[in-house]
Write a structure and sequence with these properties.
By secondary structure, the chain is of the alpha+beta class. It has six helices and four strands. A four-stranded antiparallel β-sheet has the order 1-3-4-2. The longest helix is centred in the middle third of the chain and has 35 residues, at 66-100.
Length: 205
């Protein structure tokens, strides 16, 4: 009788344990992570510029492979750098245009500036430095099987000095083209932009 009772109690415990581990479809859990604590730059805003560096964050969620997550997170961060490059260059363009009284639709200036903005955004990303990487590996319960994926976050930086130097280098190249084409209006405009960039601090400082 005692053995029968013990067996029944054991069966009840096993059944209860089985009920507890049963997972719903779509439910997920972290099985591994790169650090016990998620960094502040992942949870909150990207760090403000410091020590001559401008910071950017990139991410990729639900990457099937870790390597894919790293690649996509880096590309996401580079996208942010490219956007900043275009924003800063356009802001400099607008200041110079207004100061010289040049219309927005001026073709002599517009073509030169557009080429410069594209070249700038493509060149500046070559100076990207990876600062930190944080990742989490998840187990996800699906119908009749278990899947795994990664959420990957990357913090990168670029040198403010390089940012400014690259902008000036692009402008110098455009100045050379303007002189060759005897485009005096574009030449004056680019000279004004160069002076503006030399005095500006990027990254909102």
């Amino acid at each position: 009788m005692k053995r029968l009772l013990a067996g029944l109690i054991g069966l009840i415990f096993v059944s209860c344990a089985g009920a507890k581990v049963k997972k719903e479809i779509g439910e997920r859990e972290i099985v591994e992570r790169s650090d016990d604590k998620k960094p502040e730059w992942v949870l909150k805003k990207v760090p403000k510029p410091k020590e001559g560096k401008i910071f950017f964050r990139g991410s990729r969620t639900r990457a099937v492979a870790y390597e894919d997550g790293i690649t996509d997170a880096r590309m996401d961060a580079i996208k942010g750098i490219s956007q900043l490059a275009q924003t800063e260059m356009f802001a400099t363009y607008e200041r110079a245009r207004k100061e010289l009284g040049i219309p927005e639709d001026d073709k002599d200036v517009g073509r030169v500036i557009n080429d410069g903005m594209i070249a700038f955004s493509e060149t500046i990303v070559k100076g990207v430095v990876e600062e930190e990487i944080y990742w989490e590996k998840y187990k996800e319960y699906e119908a009749g099987k278990v899947g795994y994926f990664y959420d990957v976050y990357m913090l990168v930086s670029i040198s403010e000095r390089d940012f400014r130097a690259t902008a000036e280098s692009i402008i110098e190249n455009q100045l050379k083209k303007a002189r060759e084409e005897k485009n005096k209006k574009a030449e004056d405009f680019l000279n004004q932009m160069r002076e503006d960039i030399r005095q500006k601090r990027f990254g909102g400082e």
